[in-house]
Design a protein that fits this description.
The chain is an alpha+beta fold. It folds into 2 domains: 234 residues, 3-Layer(aba) Sandwich (Beta-lactamase); 92 residues, Peptidoglycan synthesis regulatory factor (PBP3), Domain 2. Helices cover 35% and strands 27% of the residues. It contains 10 helices and 17 strands. β16 and β17 form a beta hairpin.
Length: 384
């Protein structure tokens, strides 16, 4: 009997230890899973959500990794063409080199005449690879020159991890970008009215000089399902996977979300954009100082001159961040002699933590003439 009780007690002890170990294991597993989910956020291989006007990154994952980007390449093709084409509406003949390009197509024919603007709609709405080649030939003289223009534009925008080999995004070993760079490129492109108009168009038609009409429907389905969506571009290749750059504007805040190699690309971009609008808002950080003061003058007709700022700056912030803005003022104690209106006399720098957000000049708001003998003589001659 005692032996039986001992066996039972031992069995319970073993079960207790095993239960504790399993519980600890599951607890650790749940903690790790929760941490990974919180840290990663997206199933995309790389992701970046950015506020376009300031470049602030709201959410990111592997955002600087160099990856293929498929037809989201055409964002760079489009903005390069728009900025470098003298006349977007001039019709020209399609060359044989732009016909029969592999992948998605608007089925261009040799000798038919379209404008660069027509082709940009074919490029951005239905992802015409042939349209991209025709654009490159027209704007760059040839595709090689145009791709060089694309790379120069990327450098001008400030990209660090991008290189373009072609106009359409078909896979190539040295054709790549990063989620951050692509968000930066798109934010830049969206500041162009022509680009914004094209990528926000849901349906349109283009007609050749010969009278052939093509009806185009935008592949970006978020334009129809997400409030405020105004672009931008889908993409897919075997190497790149499913890629999407989506943009959305609400209450004066323009967000751009990039997902690279992401199966549920529409769903994830929509979620990230909604998250951004729920957690951030554009805050007028300059209104807290609205600088307007008086600066002492010496040897002038008045003892003080009114000084102030003119600009304004808005920045996306979470609710808990709003009280963490600081300002540093650089202003002399006094100015010798008179001053003209709009003279720069100082500067205000706006910081969030250690990050400089915005610097603004301090100007004189009025003219005050000096009190020298020369100025008094000028007064006499003016009154003569």
């Amino acid at each position: 009997m005692k032996k039986t009780k001992s066996v039972i007690a031992f069995s319970f002890a073993i079960m207790f230890v095993l239960t504790a170990l399993v519980g600890a294991f599951l607890g650790c597993f749940m903690l790790v899973t929760s941490t990974v989910t919180s840290a990663q956020g997206s199933s995309a291989k790389a992701m970046c959500t950015m506020e376009a006007s300031t470049g602030r990154v709201l959410y990111a994952k592997n955002e600087n990794a160099k990856l293929p980007m498929a037809s989201t390449t055409k964002i760079m093709t489009a903005i390069t063409a728009i900025e470098n084409c003298k006349d977007l509406d001039e019709k020209f003949e399609i060359s044989p080199k732009a016909v029969g390009i592999s992948g998605t197509s608007i089925y261009l024919r040799k000798g038919e005449a379209l404008s660069v603007r027509d082709l940009l709609y074919g490029l951005m709405l239905v992802s015409g690879n042939d349209a991209s080649v025709a654009i490159g030939e027209r704007v760059g003289g040839n595709v090689k020159n145009f791709v060089e223009m694309m790379n120069k534009t990327a450098i001008k925008i400030g990209t660090k991890n991008s290189h373009f080999d072609n106009t359409h995004g078909l896979d190539s070993k040295t054709h790549y970008t990063s989620a951050y760079d692509l968000a930066l490129i798109t934010s830049y492109a969206l500041s162009n009215d022509t680009f914004r108009e094209i990528v926000s168009t849901k349906n349109t038609k283009i007609t050749t000089v010969e009278g052939k009409t093509r009806y185009l429907k935008n592949k970006n389905r978020l334009l129809n399902s997400l409030e405020g969506c105004n672009g931008v571009k889908t993409g897919f290749t075997d190497d790149a996977g499913r890629c999407l750059v989506a943009s959305c504007e609400r209450d004066g805040m323009q967000l751009v979300s990039v997902v690279l190699n992401c199966g549920p690309m529409f769903e994830e971009c929509a979620t990230l954009l909604e998250k951004g609008f729920n957690e951030y808002e554009m805050v007028e950080v300059t209104k807290d100082y609205d600088y307007s003061q008086y600066l002492r003058l010496e040897d002038a007709r008045k003892e003080f001159v009114k000084v102030g700022t003119k600009g304004s700056y808005r920045y996306p912030m979470r609710e808990e961040e709003k009280g963490k803005i600081t300002y540093i003022y650089k202003l002399p104690e006094k100015i010798e002699g008179g001053v003209s209106k709009d003279k720069v006399v100082g500067e205000i720098s706006t910081y969030y933590g250690n990050d400089l957000l915005f610097s603004e000049k301090i100007y004189t708001m009025e003219e005050v003439r000096s009190n020298t003998i020369l100025e008094k003589l000028k007064d006499i001659f003016r009154k003569w």
